[in-house]
What we know:
Elements: H1 8-16, H2 41-58, H3 64-71, H4 75-88, E1 91-94, E2 97-100
Amino acid sequence: MAEKKTTKKAAAVKAEEPKKTTVKKAAAPKKVAEKKVAVNAENAGFKAGDVYQALAAAGKALTVKEIAKAAKISEEETLLGLGWLFKEGKLAAADEKITLA
């Protein structure tokens, strides 16, 4: 068997091949665990109580965001409580603000 000798041209071609560059991928943003809201009659009643107390303490009409902040609950929980209270006829709404009826 005869060994093939590499020529200078073949060696030059190999040397001219572009080097592969690696691109670093950006790190994926960390997922924040969302607080799950258990939807049941007991939980809705407690959230309605929180919303009612926040509105009573404020003494004026509040937005959903303001109620959530005053009651120290999430906006989703606030909406759950508001639905309960609207169904009972305890709330009145005007211009995106909610007050006790």
